[in-house]
Amino acid sequence: MDRLENIDHALKILLKETGEQIDIPRTLPLKQQLMRALMNVWQPSLPSSELLHAQDEELSRQREEKGIVEIAEEGIQLWKGDITRLKVDAIVNAANSQMLGCFIPLHSCIDNAIHSAAGIQLRCACNEMMQTQGHEEPTGQAKITPGFNLPARYVIHTVGPIIPNGIPTKEQEEQLASCYRSCLRIAEEHGLKSIAFCCISTGVFRFPQKLAAEIAVKTIKKFSRKHIKTIVFNVFTDTDYDIYQQLI
């Protein structure tokens, strides 16, 4: 089965399982876009091995095409780009309190990007974890799952504070600091040596970028590390890059 046949096979199963009535497009980029959209709306139930095989085959090819980035240097590092390319022990996902990933098709948030690159298995793992917990994830805490189709071995999910008016309170500043401490604590408990942080809460959660970066850097520098040797601040915009470059 060649690549187009494989992705068509995955799409047919996804369309059947989701109940969507959509014609399968002809070109590979549009097929990939549809596959991601259908993965985004997938309800958290374990898919068939047939679907997983086809999905994993396509995601593996996408991973190789994007290119895997390794951070060789120890200490605090700054890297601009797609966090789903990083080959580290864990990447941090800025999740919502349901911890099931973003259900909006093709949304630009990091939660969507990470779940789309990891595969449906990530949502299933998160759902199992949350069903066991029995309640939504509190702000400032964190959970860990495998990375599945990501280059990273694990994903650490944390829920940052939401700032509707863009002006955080002292309590919300402490909640953001708690996100970083919780992620580092889990990484240490699992003996991880490298971790990459996204800019938690600065997207749709509207935490001011500069203040968020100051809290992140201060919290990480104060944290006592035993196993962790490399900490990456992953940014996606020039503005964030300039802010972190001045702080670290």
Explain what this protein looks like in three dimensions.
By secondary structure, this protein is of the alpha/beta class. The chain contains eight helices and six strands, in the order H-H-H-E-E-H-H-E-E-H-E-H-E-H. The protein has two domains: 3-65, no CATH class; 69-247, Leucine Aminopeptidase, subunit E, domain 1. 46% of the residues lie in helices and 13% in strands. Strands 1-6-5-2-4-3 form a six-stranded mixed sheet, sandwiched between helices. It is globular, with a radius of gyration of 18 Å. The mean pLDDT is 96. Residues 63-248 form the Macro domain. One of its GO terms (molecular function) is metal ion binding.
Quick take:
It is built from 8 helices and 6 strands. The chain has helices at 3-18, 28-40, 49-66, 110-118, 120-133, 170-189, 209-222, 238-247; strands at residues 75-80, 90-95, 142-146, 154-159, 194-197, 230-235. Keywords: Glycosidase, Hydrolase, Metal-binding, Zinc.
CATH H-level homologous superfamily name of the largest domain: Leucine Aminopeptidase, subunit E, domain 1
- Major sheet details: 6 strands, mixed
Q: Fraction of residues in helices? A: 40-55%
User: How big is the Rg?
Assistant: 18 Å
Enumerate the strands of the largest sheet in spatial order, edge to edge or round the barrel: 1-6-5-2-4-3
Mean pLDDT: 96
Structural class: alpha/beta
User: How far is the N terminus from the C terminus?
Assistant: 49 Å
The string of secondary-structure elements, in order, is HHHEEHHEEHEHEH
Number of domains: 2
Please tally the β strands and state the result.
6
What best-fitting shape do the alpha-carbon axes yield?
Answer: globular
CATH topology of the largest domain: Leucine Aminopeptidase, subunit E, domain 1
Number of helices in the DSSP assignment: 8
Which parts are unreliable, with pLDDT below 50 for 5 consecutive residues or more? none
Which architecture of the largest domain does the CATH hierarchy give at level 2?
3-Layer(aba) Sandwich
CATH class of the largest domain: Alpha Beta
Strand content: 5-15%
GO molecular function: hydrolase activity, acting on glycosyl bonds; metal ion binding
Family: Belongs to the MacroD-type family. Zn-Macro subfamily.
Domain Macro: 63-248
InterPro entries: Macro_dom, Macro_dom-like
